[in-house]
Amino acid sequence: MFNTLGSIVNSSTMTDNVNHPKHYTKGKIEPIDFINANNLDYLEGNIVKYIARYKYKGGAEDLEKAEFYLRMLLQREKEKKNVITKRKEELDKRL
Asked: Where are the domains of the chain?
C-alpha cells in the first residue's frame, strides 16, 4: 500500500517507516517538525534527532552520535568567538 506521498506503507500495521518512523513519533512533536519550526541547522538538527530517538532506536549509540554533533557545534561556536575576539583586539590596537 502507498500513502499520499507515494511511500510504501505496511498495510498490517499502517506504519510509515519513511515519513513517520515509530522512533520519531513517540513524542508530542516529531523531531523534523521541531527542527524546521526552529530553523535549526544540520548540526543542531542532528543533536535533536538523536536525543529524541535514543530510547526507542539506538540507545547509547544514538547518544554518542548526539555527542559527536554537539562537539562539532561547540567547536564551531568556540571558533566564532575566537574570530570575534581577534577582530575586536585588532580594532582596539588601531584606536
From this structure: 22-94
User: pTM of this prediction?
Assistant: 0.69
Quote the CA–CA distance of 87 and 93 in Å, as a whole number: 10
Helices 42-53 + 60-94 axis angle, to 10: 150
SS3 at position 69: helix
pLDDT digit string, tens, across residues 2-53? 444 555 545 545 568 777 777 777 778 899 999 999 999 999 999 999 999 9
Distances (CA, A) of 6 to 11, 20, 25, 51, 91: 14, 13, 20, 29, 57
d(CA 61, CA 47): 13
Grid cell for residue 72: 562539532
Distance of alpha carbon 18 from alpha carbon 54, whole angstroms: 18
